[in-house]
Design goal:
Structural class: alpha/beta
Radius of gyration: 27 Å
Shape: elongated
CATH architecture of the largest domain: 3-Layer(aba) Sandwich
CATH superfamily of the largest domain: P-loop containing nucleotide triphosphate hydrolases
Number of domains: 3
Distance between the termini: 49 Å
Strand order of the largest sheet: 14-13-15-16-12-17-18-19-20
Pfam families: AAA_25, Toprim_3
Domain Toprim: 208-279
Strand content: 15-25%
Largest sheet: 9 strands, mixed
InterPro entries: P-loop_NTPase, RepA, TOPRIM_DnaG/twinkle, TOPRIM_dom
Helix content: 25-40%
CATH class of the largest domain: Alpha Beta
Protein name: Toprim domain-containing protein
């Protein structure tokens, strides 16, 4: 049950966001926030009159015109058709009466929306041939050379520069107007409840990467600078919808955000699903960067990933952040390899010497780096670092064999090696490892997803792996890697001498693992291994599986690889 005090706090927070929003994005934010409040109206938590009164008051004080406020509230009222209470929305049952009212209003608004969209498309057809070559807005944004992507018009608010909007089916749906003062409005029928976006294509047959931005000027600036396809989401709250829509179409989707409160909120919400970047300076967007330094500066600042400290919670530092009840129970569990390697986790694969445990770890590493399914399980592509603590030529040869078999002989570009151990007990070396990964991540403009430490013994540093304090120090160093880089850390370790069923050393290692696998060689004269899931903290353990290894000839000598891992 949600208290009246909590509901009032939510209303106050939304009104405060509107009051402090910058002029350029204020109308879109007002639309989004109003829609959210009307969802609470639909759920029966707030009276509609109260919402209209509070929103009108705050919008007027923020500088919005009366007609603009009325139009926005009229559009946002569709939120009533998707009832969503404040607080634990999933735990509250919507009554049949509320559901029926929402359904009836939905039908009524659908009719109105179709009529509005037909009118918008008619307006689009009437205006789309109006040249934007003399647009003051494009001149201010230094985008006059791209004027063919825009058109101009005029309405009761004044002259505007506009661009076409598309819906989730890729069909023309209307347009976004950008007035000379920087304020924006989407045409009737393109409300916040759908997926509408601007489309700015490079003209190249290139599905390697696309960029999602909040505004059209940002998208065009990045498109001119990079030569890559760009899409504008019309508002910060719509970015995730557009990014999800484009995800199947491109190998990578990069979200280029404004460096402001709304942008940081989006970055925090998207988490590790998309690479999020933003300009270096507070309050800037990529259109500002283009105006100040041109395409070369845009390319430089597109490597500026959103940093964890930028997303820091504003809770006073002397307080813990308390979470209510089972909030977050429905958070989706993400994997690098579905069912095997979770994202942003710490785990271990262990076995006796000669059990092929390193072969197993390398097979996982190669498939994550290539983004190719492993053993029928879906893989999320990400760069991988393999710390080959034992050195030697075995690891590069095994990688070459994997590349020949699974990548048509081409290099696995996102699989990197470190051919020497890192002393995880040495803070300076751990810092150097973190900085190295960050450097290469920025260099390739990709977030690393996995680091494999092979073996624990070689990278343990000073100390005794049988002592709890020393092992805890090792685990803490791995946790630092995981937390600061947002990646999975996999440790390759040896099994116990007396008890080969468990990993060697202090039991505090297994206790700290989110997942754990044991690798056993089937027979000494047989190139095959058995993989056993011995711990899966947030999932069920998989049954034992056997994999055979085959010879791949490199130069004149054969090398093994896991032949049935696809």
């Amino acid at each position: 049950m949600t208290s009246d005090h909590y509901i009032q706090s939510c209303i106050d927070g939304i009104c405060d966001d509107i009051a402090h929003c910058s002029a350029g994005g204020r109308n879109n934010l007002f639309n989004d926030k109003a829609y959210r409040l009307f969802q609470a109206v639909g759920a029966g938590q707030i009276l509609e009159q109260l919402v209209v009164s509070r929103l009108t008051e705050v919008a007027l004080s923020a500088g919005l015109a009366q007609q603009e406020i009325r139009d926005t509230l009229k559009s946002a009222k569709r939120g009533i058709t998707e009832p969503k209470p404040f607080g634990n929305a999933d735990g509250m049952t919507i009554s049949p009466e509320i559901a029926a009212k929402a359904s009836a209003l939905q039908a009524e608004l659908d009719v109105q929306s179709r009529e509005k969209q037909a009118y918008s498309l008619e307006q689009l057809q009437n205006n789309r041939n109006n040249s934007a070559a003399d647009s003051p807005y494009l001149a201010r944004k230094k985008l006059t050379d791209a004027h063919e992507l825009f058109f101009t018009g005029e309405d009761n608010k004044g002259a505007f520069t506009a661009h076409e909007l598309f819906n989730k089916s890729g069909q023309s749906a209307g347009f976004e107007r950008i007035y000379n003062d920087g304020s924006k409005r989407v045409s009737a029928g393109c409300g916040v409840s759908g997926v509408y976006y601007g489309c700015f294509l490079s003209g190249k047959d290139d599905d390697s990467v696309c960029y999602i931005t909040e505004g059209a000027a940002d998208a065009v600036s990045i498109m001119l600078a990079t030569g890559k396809d760009c899409y504008s989401a019309t508002s910060a709250t719509n970015i995730n919808k557009v990014a999800q829509l484009m995800k199947p179409e491109y190998q990578r989707v990069i979200v280029a955000l404004d460096n402001d409160k709304a942008g940081r909120k989006v970055a925090e919400k998207l988490g590790g699903e998309f690479l999020c970047v933003m300009p270096e300076n507070e309050g800037a967007d990529y259109s500002d960067v283009y105006c100040a330094g041109g395409g070369s500066e845009v390319n430089r600042q597109l490597t500026n990933k959103v940093k964890p400290e930028q997303l820091a919670d504003k809770t006073p530092k002397n307080l813990f952040k308390l979470i209510s009840g089972f909030d977050g129970y429905d958070t989706e569990f993400s994997y690098l390899i579905k069912g095997y390697l979770p994202m942003n986790a710490f785990g271990m694969v262990y076995g006796a010497s000669g059990s092929f445990k390193s072969f197993q770890a390398l097979s996982w590493a190669a498939h994550v780096a290539m983004g190719k399914n492993w053993n029928g399980s879906k893989v999320t592509q990400a760069p991988v670092l393999y710390v080959a603590g034992e050195g030697g030529i075995g690891v590069p040869r095994r990688i070459k064999a994997l590349a020949d078999t699974y990548n048509d002989g081409y290099p696995i570009n996102d699989l990197y090696r470190l051919d020497h151990p890192v002393a995880m007990s040495d803070i300076a070396e751990v810092n150097q490892l973190i900085e190295s990964i960050q450097h290469y991540s920025e260099k390739v403009n990709k977030k690393f997803g996995l680091v494999i430490i092979d073996t624990l013994a070689r990278c343990f540093g000073s100390g005794d792996e049988n002592k709890t304090d020393d092992m805890t120090r090792f685990v803490s160093a791995c946790d630092r890697l995981k937390a600061q880089l947002g990646m999975t850390v996999l440790v390759v370790h040896h099994s116990g001498v007396a008890d080969k069923e468990r990993a060697r050393g202090s039991s505090s290692l297994r206790a700290a693992c989110d997942f754990e696998y044991r690798v056993e060689r089937v027979k000494q004269d047989m190139p095959a291994l058995i993989l056993t899931s011995t711990k899966a903290k947030d999932d069920k353990e998989k049954p034992k599986q056997m994999f055979t290894l085959s010879n791949v000839s490199l130069f004149l000598q054969p090398t093994y690889l896991n032949s049935c891992l696809t």
